[in-house]
Amino acid sequence: MVTRDTLDAIVIGGGIAGLAAAWDLRDRNVLVLEATDRVGGRIKSEPRGDVWLNLGAHVFSGAGSASDRLLAETGMHAPTVSGRLAAVSLNGKLVASGGVETFPFRLPMPLMSRVALVRAGIKLRLAVAQYAKIAAPVPGEDPAVRQLRMLQFMDDRSFREFSGTLPEDVDLLFRSTLTRSSGEPEQLPAGYGVGYFHLVWNRTAGLSRNILGGPTRFTDALAAGLGDRVHRGAVVSSVRQDANGVTVSWTDAGVAHEARAAAAVVATPAYVTREIVTGLPDDTAAALNAIPYGPYIVGSLLTGEQGAKPWDDLYALATPKRSFSMLFNMGNVLRGGETTRRPGGSLMVYAAAGFARRLWDVADADIASRFREDLAALFPGTDTEVREVVVQRWERGVPHPIVGRSKLQAPLTKPLGRVHLAGDYLGSWHTETAIRTATSAAAQIRGQIGG
Q1: Deepest of 58, 249, 415, 416, by most Cβ within 10 A of its Cβ?
Q2: pTM for the complete prediction?
């Protein structure tokens, strides 16, 4: 039970980073302050019988990762998705088999586009091979050193500068994949874009696990294990530190509160962290200000099919020229262990970055209709199988890097005394970065308070 007059740590933010930090400190006197009425942050899913609707972040790292340890401790079953990670639908044709090297010869496009795709593909393949060497872990290496090395790779130019000007078909093909990061090819560092294709083309390269039942089960399990340490509806206004600890001020239903602790973990998005932490070094404050977040409009579709469907063997499908830029088969993780195909499923589609901005002023019901129409165009007959569509908007969905991002890493990760930062904006592994930085923050606090 938390005793507020003798806190060891206060965690600001009840997303995956804040919950992970508090979980590692759950044997100490710790308080979690979450501004909204739910935990999980940008992780959000809703159960629907044997399947679930996914509305936010949903992929986690594999064996030996910080995520893996936390998933095991909370009893989560998170198998690796078995479906195809790289498939494309373009100009009326869906290509979901064979090597990606064959796509330029199988997708319908003008000769000029075909030639441009071959050239860009070769260039990208060579860069991915370089990136794989850079990103390979070194035994005994501090993960922070590896992260910086990855961020420094081709960080001096944008992906657009790397690829050159491309015909519309080819540009949209690359853009639909790259905007998964919430940034545009003109904004993203070339190395970061190359790293995205490294993940897409290599199942073992990183994030490829889904939680059975949906990722909200994970954040709910963490919160349940913390019990009354988690305080929802607490809007933090300031985090101030001195030589002896930190003072955190917040309001709850208009009532002001304040508490002291030996240390604090600030696990809020970069733009919130910049506003609430006082006395930050100038370079850290500037680095936090320099982290952009891009928008997403997510559509989660519950399907009621009774038998096999053409998307069963797919996991991820790029869909340039549609109302959504990517489709994910959330039910794919169920298919691998089935002996008999169970009825029903769940698909997640989304428009990100510029694709989302073009839809932002459209009503949810109209977006749902567009998503359904495009899904039926991809898979004829699907319109009769859709039972429910839920639309979720994330105005600031995911932090994405900009050219020169590696130069921000030192001011973002340097020691800040009794205040410790955690979150996905501190690296390029998304949920794994959030959990890894939270774990590190908790360990540093133990070093400060002892035990």
Answers
A1: 58
A2: 0.96
